[in-house]
Amino acid sequence: MHFRRYFSLSAFALAAAAGSGLALAAVSPLDLVKPVADYKIYVSEKLETLLTDTKAFTSAVKAGDVAKAKALFAPTRMSYEAIEPIAELFSDLDASIDSRADDHEKAEKDPGFTGFHRIEFQLFSENSTEGMAPFADKLLADVTELNKRITDLTLPPEKVVGGAAALMEEVAATKISGEEDRYSHTDLWDFKANFDGSKKIFDLVRPLIESGDGAFVTKVAGNFTTVDTTLAKYKSGSGYELYDKLSEDDRKVLAAAVNTLAEDLSTLRGKLGLN
User: Fold this and answer.
1) Amino acid 24: pLDDT
2) DSSP label at 156?
3) Burial class of residue 44 (count of CB atoms within 10 Å of its CB; 0-12, 13-18, 19+)
4) What is the rounded distance in angstroms from the CA atom of residue 252 to the CA atom of residue 104?
5) CA nearest to 79, candidates 242, 204, 196, 228
6) Would you list the DSSP string of 70-107?
7) Could you give the 3-state DSSP secondary structure of residue 237?
8) Cα–Cα distance, 92 to 96 (Å, whole number)
9) Can you give the pLDDT at residue 212?
10) What residue spans of 174-213 are helical by DSSP H?
């Protein structure tokens, strides 16, 4: 189990319980069919990109091309991060693909520590690809299996809608500290992917809420703009600045914006009658 992703009753849960109110009267389960179907297309496209990018990344690792593998690490992960709540439905693959060292008893030396972050450690802390061929092969096999499983999956509406909040909650609760990409400091790429994935879900269900609670929609849209504008300050070329370059004040501003957005998104399921 990926314990770092499971929280006890949090500020977000409390906000949802206190502020979700009643489901919008006009929303029925049938209204959710098209948004969920459209989201499945989005997920499929992200998985296709993830598979293509992972092939290139793992090929560079196996070829011993440290510089190329480093350059591909962050952009490759973005497709995974954008659909993370759906990927996490398969906890075995999520643990294999995306666990962190502290999820394992022996940390970086633990044989069960595999996936993106095991390779990240070798690339950025050890500046090598030595011994990484088996890990690269496993990562590609796991991503291929994830693609297959999700292709055959009927997405639960409550997981899709809840994913909008889950993506932002995880940034606010654990990622803002920089623990996710602790060796490469490419956390801002992950944040952007989490943001994009969350906004996609919100945009798909927005029409179902707008007529019944326009003020809420306007507020959330404004919060998305605030987070996006904040992230844009750290753009660098086709990517982002390294996260360890941000000051403590920078991180606090980003955290505040993400927290505000996450709290509002935590009420989405209730508004759509999915609690």
Assistant:
1) 52
2) P
3) middle
4) 29
5) 196
6) HHHHHHHHHHHHHTHHHHTTSHHHHHHHH--GGGSTTG
7) coil
8) 6
9) 85
10) 187-210
β-bridge partners, 239: 236
Distances (CA, A) of 258 to 191, 198, 221: 10, 11, 13
Residue with tokens 């605030």: 226
What's the CA gap between 13 and 8, in Å, rounded?
A: 9
Check: pTM over 0.70? Answer yes or no: yes
What is the residue whose two structure tokens read 């957005």? 261
Cα–Cα distance measured from residue 58 to residue 142, given in angstroms and rounded to the nearest whole number: 12
The model's pLDDT over 185-220, given as tens digits with 9 standing for 90+, comes to 999 999 999 999 999 999 999 999 988 899 999 999
The pair of structure tokens assigned to 164 is 């909008």
- Nearest-angstrom CA–CA distance, 13 and 263: 8
Residue 270's identity, in one-letter code, is: G
Q: Quick one: how far is CA 231 from the chain centroid?
A: 15
The residue type at 78: M
pLDDT at 274: 87
Q: What is the pLDDT of residue 103?
A: 93
Q: Identify the three-state secondary structure at position 28.
A: coil
